[in-house]
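Quick entry between incubations.
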Amino acid sequence: MSLVECIPNFSEGRRQWVVDAIAESIRAYPVHVLDVNLDHDHNRSVITFAGEPAVVADAAVAAVRTAAAHIDLQTHSGVHPRIGAADIVPFVPLRDVTMAECVALAHAVGRRVGALGIPVYLYEAAAQRPERRDLAYVRRGGYEALAREIDVPEREPDYGPTLIGAAGAVAIGARAPLIAFNAYLETDDVEIAKSIAKAIRASGGGLPYLKAIGVLVNGQAQVSMNATDFRQTSLYTIMTRLHAEAAAHGTRVTHTELIGLTPQAALLDYAVESLGLPLLTRQRTLESRLGEATGDYRPLTFE
Amino acid sequence: MSLVECIPNFSEGRRQWVVDAIAESIRAYPVHVLDVNLDHDHNRSVITFAGEPAVVADAAVAAVRTAAAHIDLQTHSGVHPRIGAADIVPFVPLRDVTMAECVALAHAVGRRVGALGIPVYLYEAAAQRPERRDLAYVRRGGYEALAREIDVPEREPDYGPTLIGAAGAVAIGARAPLIAFNAYLETDDVEIAKSIAKAIRASGGGLPYLKAIGVLVNGQAQVSMNATDFRQTSLYTIMTRLHAEAAAHGTRVTHTELIGLTPQAALLDYAVESLGLPLLTRQRTLESRLGEATGDYRPLTFE
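Done. Structure below.
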């Protein structure tokens, strides 16, 4: 059975009932809702679900429709870049499905969302224009800038009207799994977070496959990151660089958080690298060997 | 189906054919051999297998018999403490089996190994004398001391003859999963490794649930450790202490290694602690949520 993951982000992290309504519209389809995460500070939420491609497409369209009905970008506030009520809708191949199939899925969903009257931008592997592979480019200036500039040829949607309403627009894409990862600094100076973000991110000549911005959350400076290919730029590489930059700025990382669901492989890779273990230790866990031998991969709890 | 793990350690890490012969005698039974690890430096090997309790018992007795036939403790050399050809035979409950059942298994196997003419000492949860819960106590002085002292009342075996031959004796036990973990120091001074081991281990007033010795391996000082309860004293706690002690001794940890198979949970716990993530991140991996939702816990590879 082929399995696709969809991780839509919505511009609502405070009104629980709105996020519940969106989740319910997804659960109306035979998909598996794996996680619902409300981020009050960023006023943003992430729902993670998975299932067979055609059903995931139906559920994604329903989620976009519900979000558009309840979220008004003209009154929304939050520090995270966003262009729409349903802000991004990425599809990730999990099992027995190719990236090309996820690209086709993004196009099919984009066509249906466009028909609802919402402008659609295709991004990453689904992009039709090379510059739109970059989500930051698609969302530049946020909802406010897009509302002003949607008539400009460079901002013409891939699907839907060249006209933006209260629900904004949506970026629909296909991509590899990403790790959404925030590190809090022991300072209230957001400029330090911005300076560190600029130094470590790929676009500033820092680490490849890393996006980063500096924001202020509850009075604490935060480096908010997306690691877009953890096999190329690992969590350990990112943390090592982050600790060094923080020290150079006279501060330190107090704690971190992961948004949404992280591939276990990324955490295991981190442990192996940080402990200085041989790389093949990844395949040397009791659970993985037991799974290979018996076909039963259930975790062992040892509680 | 109940599942028990058995991780016998043998005093042979150089003659591949001997270890192969032992593994073959295990594979003659319907168990799953998960790992075969030869440690040339310690001249020691570890075979990890799992299966239903009664079959695991049969395979364990066969392995002890094969090891006794091919390994002569009178000519064996190696820095690791050992008392026998098959040196230790621990049983660990994995699924749908209690520690009490593993204790019963250790007794049953002990009785059968004793009948082969090999002295048996029951240790950890299977111990019949409180002091024998401690494997280090059981193995004190190694084969050489035991050969001299076996007539002393304190060293009377739990099963088998009060008489030691070339195959030595065997410690048979039941225990929770342990992590056998070595850290290499950037020094050839084994006294530093011994001093660090003494400072960090439970018996020296260091970290609870940690055993440690200092040894010299290929000209590099090594702290060789057993973490006997990784939920109580985590890999991260051990590493933090180890780094601090190494620094205090003017050296550092160059790399580490895990012997045998490590529970994945211990590595995930390490990542979560080291990254400063909320503890519940452990349950927030994509694989664990997908497993709970679909019943399919196979790892995702994203290669």
